[in-house]
Amino acid sequence: PVGSATYRLNLSLPKTPHVYTLYLEEVFSSYHVYANGQLVHSVGNPEPEHYQEAITNSEISFTASGNTKLLIAVTNHSYYYSGITFPPAFGLSEAVARIQHIQLLVCMAFLTTLVICVVISFYFSRYCLPIRKRTILYCTSLFITFSYRIVFTLFTIKASLWYPLELFSIYSVYLFAVLLLNDIREIPLKKSLCISLPLLIFCMATFIYGFTSHHSQTVNLVFQYGSRIIKIATAAYLLYNALSAVLYDENDSPVLLTGAAVAAVSIFTDRLLPLYEPIYGSWFVAYGMFFLVLCFGFIITRNLALTYKQQLVFQKEQRLLKRQLAMQQMHYAELSDKIESSIRLRHDERHRLNTISSLLDNGEIEQLKEYLKEYATFSK
């Protein structure tokens, strides 16, 4: 992976001169491009004594006709990838530009969808539900994984700055997919440690692995086979839990089984076709995991809708209870007033009876007659 190399391609083009474009995607880690012996493009500096790393997606346009020789001189002392790792695209400028525009449009569509999912999940994360927080992390990892094409189209950066983050994000997608599945099925964390703990350890290992530019052959092989085991184990775990949800007749089992099946098939297909390179869009695993997050989003949205519906019913019942309570409080206040009025009347009656009895006992008949006349007038 470390050193210098030269790529050469002899082309037999039409005799009429045309403007052609050579598209090079992420050549590691610096290079010169020559057309018929003339330098037409440079990224970084591949000269060993003045080596400077730089990674970007390059579109190199030049006029050519007849026999044309393309030569790419590459040097890598920065990363464990080296040289041309993606097939170049060559053709008329309009055709190459059309392919690149479609690629960017597809990438932007995926990223826009993920941003919407992150915004919605961020809004609902205020309720402190772990499933929504992990959805944010899952979508963020997918966003970083998908955004490489736009990043390298717009910027020229160093491999040591981007690729550790991208490598960590790729395997974080598997980790958060497992954790989200556990949250949806309400599987205790202890029961999933057999898969979640190795995934977490491998994610941390990939982050360290990405920051180290030079590795022994043994380390590279361990990483290569370890990544395969992690991917296959994740696919098997997703399928197992989806089938378990169907057997236990859970509410979300059809959607869960569909998403897990697509994700698992994409992982197995990526292993069966390791040399596949996409012309448009991304690789199988990215599509599978993107479809899985849509299924997770559908399940979460449906659960939120049910929760919201239950909340509306609860709020309506609460309003009715408040109304009944207010009516009871009014009735209680009226009843209390009547009781207090009755108590006052009884007190007044006792006082009058005592007065009449006292007047009778004292033989004050005239005063008693006057008092009874006043009482009769008061009662009216």
**How many E-type strands?**
7
Question: Whole-Å distance between the termini?
Answer: 115 Å
SSE string, helix = H, strand = E?
EEEEEEEHHHHHHHHH
Question: Order of strands side by side in the largest beta sheet?
Answer: 1-6-3-4
- Helix % is 55-70%
Q: Give the strand content.
A: 5-15%
Broad shape: elongated
Biggest β-sheet description: 4 strands, antiparallel
pLDDT < 50 stretches: none
Average pLDDT over all residues? 84
* Estimated radius of gyration: 40 Å
Describe this entry's structure for a reader.
There is one protein chain. The protein is an alpha+beta fold. The chain has nine helices and seven strands; from the N terminus they run βββββββααααααααα. It has helices spanning 93-124, 130-146, 148-154, 159-185, 193-211, 217-247, 253-272, 284-362, 365-379, and strands spanning 3-12, 18-25, 30-35, 38-43, 57-64, 67-76, 89-92. A four-stranded antiparallel β-sheet has the order 1-6-3-4, with no helix packed on it. The protein has a three-stranded antiparallel β-sheet with strand order 5-2-7. It is elongated.
Write the layout of secondary structure elements.
Elements: E1 3-12, E2 18-25, E3 30-35, E4 38-43, E5 57-64, E6 67-76, E7 89-92, H1 93-124, H2 130-146, H3 148-154, H4 159-185, H5 193-211, H6 217-247, H7 253-272, H8 284-362, H9 365-379
Antiparallel strand pairs: 1-6, 2-5, 2-7, 3-4, 3-6
Summed up, what is this model?
The chain is α+β, with helices and mostly antiparallel strands and 380 residues long.
